[in-house]
């Protein structure tokens, strides 16, 4: 990822394939995305809802709907 404002924020299985995927957050503009992985190979990706308020962080994820990866992210406001 050449843009240094993108950071890995967690790991987990976001598409219910029993493989670890990588969620990213852009600390400059609040965009969020996830790379679907097979080992070290990116097999797909999805854009997730943006959160432009920079006081928010992605601190956890959970499976809600296995077929809807954009529903898997849980943004929780960081405590000051």
Strand content: 35-45%
Mean pLDDT, all residues? 75
Q: Please provide the ordered H/E string of secondary-structure elements.
A: EEEEEE
Helical residues, percent: under 10%
Q: Using only CA atoms, what is the Rg?
A: 12 Å
Number of domains: 1
Describe this structure in words.
The protein contains no helices and six strands. The chain has 80 residues and is an all-beta fold. It has one domain. The strands form two sheets. The chain has a four-stranded antiparallel sheet, with no helix packed on it. A two-stranded antiparallel sheet has the order 5-6. A hairpin with a 5-residue loop joins β2 (22-26) and β3 (32-38). The termini are far apart. Residues 64-80 have low confidence and may be disordered.
Identify the notable features of this structure and list them briefly.
mainly beta, four-stranded antiparallel β-sheet, globular, 80 residues
How is this fold's topology laid out?
Blueprint: E1 6-8, E2 22-26, E3 32-38, E4 41-48, E5 56-61, E6 73-77
Antiparallel strand pairs: 1-2, 2-3, 3-4, 5-6
Short summary of the structure?
0% of the residues lie in helices and 42% in strands.
